[in-house]
């Protein structure tokens, strides 16, 4: 079986392309995943094929990346409007990072919204590979009625619902065809000395030779050929499928590429797991593509026995199934198979770095509808994070509530639906509270005596303490300058422990940071003094001093790295400024053509707003990662409102 992924932005007709390709020579077999990655198995040219229809939303990029792990080649569907080229930027980035041979298909050419050359030029801004036009459109007025192949120099006229008719190249297209063909040959000659010599000698190369060169350079991932059509009308589908059949590399090339990326012995690389999901009453289903011979139910794969092998299209198990190299199968009761991963018979190997999904930007607390579901929710989210690498599961500081980081609102909605439909856990979500702290603005001294007599041995401890603000980021410090044994040395650690306890909650109700405590005097009693007494005296004394030290609220500030196509960079400074952040600088992204990386400091309370603003300003393409940087003071009405809100029950700190 040969396998390819069809990917691209939403509304570019990917599913229609898959449907038309699968129906060229018979009825296809289809299966669907709840994550939107759908499989279509079909036959073309007496060969078995599988098309992976990748989800279109940017929030599902992780599943797109994983599909490429199992793909010999891919088709990138793009719009025929030049201004929408930027929407393909994340997909070009993934394709190039993965090294997957790619054919770019400009769809919906029956409704062109710009010149084809402008579409290609706009897309080239985001591609390191040369986008090489293999066809040109044939026009009648404003309508595109056919296409001309630049290698064979044959033209076809589209016919609704029928195979295109072979025609002579119209005179109106002849000059454009010659120019485009010359450009095609010039680019191909960069990768073939024979062709370069033919062109220098002004000899016309044969079509068969050009197809062979084109097949080789695609297999070697040197260029991205561009084909055109309108899948909704079936236009260009046969030519696209023939290009895949003749030019996409066999499964052995994928095996070599993955073995090299994973530093695995190619002969030991048995399979790759690339997708998984949970089904009600069945459990975890894993999709696997086979590279080696003899893999069947019960065989050793990934260090343990392979569970039931199923047909991915109908879900039926058959212990007699022995998938051939290149085949895709589903398996259940194989929970040891991590997804995605490279698989040998005795090991599970981490996938290449390029499969790492974008950092999730949306943080929410999931609240189960009943107490009965609280423990179940934690276990279930752990399972779902194993099959969805775009999801991160944590616990909220302070409350221990289930905190999830999702790629965006659509991803979160799909997660909640899976929890309800598959696991019968109904949840609501809320925004987590930023982690605030407090400190003091001025030093103070306190004298605190702890005395308690309840019969028998009493409690006595007397401490004199100085409390002072520390420089930002230094945290809590403790020192002592007592002399003459007024506080015995064995009690001083208890004084420090008491001071630390007092830092757990300050006058504003938050943990106290960046404060120094010095013990400079005190008294003890030979009988009634103890570690407990001095610990209590220190804690109560420090609390009193903190209340006199002009408490200041501290908000977290995060260092954010924002990835954004260059065309949107002009709007970012305004977005960061509106969120009371600070732009630190920006650079071109050396790993992705046409992208910039902005570095900025953003208040923790504004991160949710940053995610929304970034999605809005970049049509869902931009994303950011974050790392805590420091705490800074927050004053005025905003600080007062946070303190009041914190006093309400159930708010984290």
From TrEMBL:
- What single Pfam family name could you report for this chain, choosing any that match? GTP_EFTU
Question: Which spans are transmembrane here?
Answer: none
- Molecular function terms in GO for this entry? translation elongation factor activity
Q: Which InterPro entries match?
A: EFG_II, EFG_III/V, EFG_IV, EFG_V, EFG_V-like, P-loop_NTPase, Ribosomal_Su5_D2-typ_SF, Ribsml_uS5_D2-typ_fold_subgr
Tell me where in this chain the Elongation factor EFG domain is found. 552-642
Q: Which UniProt keywords apply?
A: Elongation factor, GTP-binding, Nucleotide-binding, Protein biosynthesis
Q: Which CDD domains match?
A: EFG_mtEFG1_IV, EFG_mtEFG_C
Keyword GTP-binding listed: yes
Statement: the UniProt record of this protein carries the keyword Nucleotide-binding: yes
Q: What is this protein called?
A: Elongation factor G
Q: Which PANTHER family match?
A: ELONGATION FACTOR G-LIKE PROTEIN (PTHR43261:SF7), TRANSLATION ELONGATION FACTOR G-RELATED (PTHR43261)
Q: Which organism is it from?
A: Rhizobium viscosum (Arthrobacter viscosus)
Among SUPFAM superfamilies, the record links this protein to: EF-G C-terminal domain-like, P-loop containing nucleoside triphosphate hydrolases, Ribosomal protein S5 domain 2-like
**Function comment:** Catalyzes the GTP-dependent ribosomal translocation step during translation elongation. During this step, the ribosome changes from the pre-translocational (PRE) to the post-translocational (POST) state as the newly formed A-site-bound peptidyl-tRNA and P-site-bound deacylated tRNA move to the P and E sites, respectively. Catalyzes the coordinated movement of the two tRNA molecules, the mRNA and conformational changes in the ribosome.
* The Translation elongation factor EFG/EF2 domain, residue ranges: 433-550
């Amino acid at each position: 079986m040969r396998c390819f992924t069809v990917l691209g932005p939403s509304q570019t007709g990917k599913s229609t392309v898959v449907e038309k390709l699968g129906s060229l020579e018979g009825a296809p077999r289809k299966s669907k995943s709840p994550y939107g990655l759908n499989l279509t198995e079909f036959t073309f040219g007496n060969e078995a094929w599988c098309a992976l229809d990748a989800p279109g939303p940017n929030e599902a990029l992780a599943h797109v990346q994983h599909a490429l792990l199992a793909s010999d080649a891919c088709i990138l569907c793009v719009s025929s409007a030049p201004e929408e080229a930027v929407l393909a930027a994340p997909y070009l980035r993934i394709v190039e990072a993965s090294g997957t041979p790619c054919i770019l298909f400009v769809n919906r050419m029956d409704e062109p919204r710009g010149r084809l050359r402008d579409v290609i030029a706009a897309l080239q801004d985001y591609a390191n590979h040369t986008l090489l036009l293999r066809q040109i459109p044939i026009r009648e007025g404003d309508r595109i009625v056919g296409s001309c192949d630049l290698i064979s120099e044959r033209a076809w006229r589209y016919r609704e619902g029928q195979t295109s008719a072979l025609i002579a190249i119209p005179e109106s297209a002849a000059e454009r065809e010659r120019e485009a063909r010359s450009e095609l040959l010039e680019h191909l000659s960069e990768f073939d000395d024979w062709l370069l010599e033919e062109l220098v000698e002004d000899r016309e190369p044969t079509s068969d030779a050009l197809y062979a060169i084109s097949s080789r350079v695609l297999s070697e991932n040197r260029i991205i050929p561009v084909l055109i059509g309108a899948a909704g009308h079936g236009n260009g589908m046969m030519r696209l499928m023939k290009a895949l059949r003749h030019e996409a590399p066999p499964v052995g090339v994928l095996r070599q590429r993955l073995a090299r990326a994973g530093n695995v012995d190619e002969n030991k690389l048995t399979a790759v797991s690339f997708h998984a999901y949970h089904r009600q009453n069945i459990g975890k289903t894993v999709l696997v593509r086979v590279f080696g011979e003899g893999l069947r139910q019960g065989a050793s794969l990934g260090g343990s026995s392979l569970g039931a092998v199923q047909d991915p299209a109908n879900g039926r198990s058959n212990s007699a199934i022995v998938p051939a190299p290149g085949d895709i199968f589903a398996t259940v009761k194989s929970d040891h198979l991590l997804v995605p991963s490279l698989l040998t018979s005795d090991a599970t190997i981490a996938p290449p770095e390029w499969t790492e999904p974008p950092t999730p930007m949306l943080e929410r607390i999931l609240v189960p509808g009943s107490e009965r579901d609280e423990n179940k929710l934690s276990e279930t989210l752990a399972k779902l994070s194993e099959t969805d690498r775009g999801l991160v599961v944590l616990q909220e500081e302070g409350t221990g509530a289930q905190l999830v980081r999702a790629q965006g609102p659509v991803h979160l909605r799909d997660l909640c639906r899976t929890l309800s439909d598959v696991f019968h856990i109904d949840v609501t979500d809320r925004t987590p509270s930023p982690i605030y702290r407090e400190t003091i603005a001025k030093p103070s001294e306190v004298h605190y005596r702890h005395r308690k007599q309840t019969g028998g041995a009493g409690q006595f401890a007397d401490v004199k303490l100085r409390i002072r603000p520390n420089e930002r980021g230094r945290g809590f410090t403790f020192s002592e300058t007592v002399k003459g044994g007024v506080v015995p040395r064995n009690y001083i650690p208890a004084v420090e422990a008491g001071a630390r306890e007092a830092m757990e909650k300050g006058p504003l109700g938050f943990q106290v940071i960046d404060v120094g405590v010095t013990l400079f005097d005190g008294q003890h009693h030979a009988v009634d003094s103890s570690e407990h007494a001095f610990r209590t005296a220190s804690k109560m004394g420090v609390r009193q001093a903190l209340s006199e030290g002009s408490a200041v609220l501290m908000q977290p500030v995060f260092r954010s790295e924002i990835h954004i196509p260059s065309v949107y960079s002009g709007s970012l400074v305004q977005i960061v400024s509106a969120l009371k952040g600070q732009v630190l600088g920006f650079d071109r992204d050396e790993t992705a053509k046409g992208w910039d990386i902005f570095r900025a400091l953003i208040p923790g309370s504004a991160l949710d707003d940053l995610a929304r603003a970034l999605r809005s300003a970049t049509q869902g393409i931009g994303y950011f990662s974050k790392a805590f940087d420091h705490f800074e003071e927050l004053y005025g009405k905003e600080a007062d409102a946070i303190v009041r809100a914190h006093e309400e029950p159930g708010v984290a700190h």
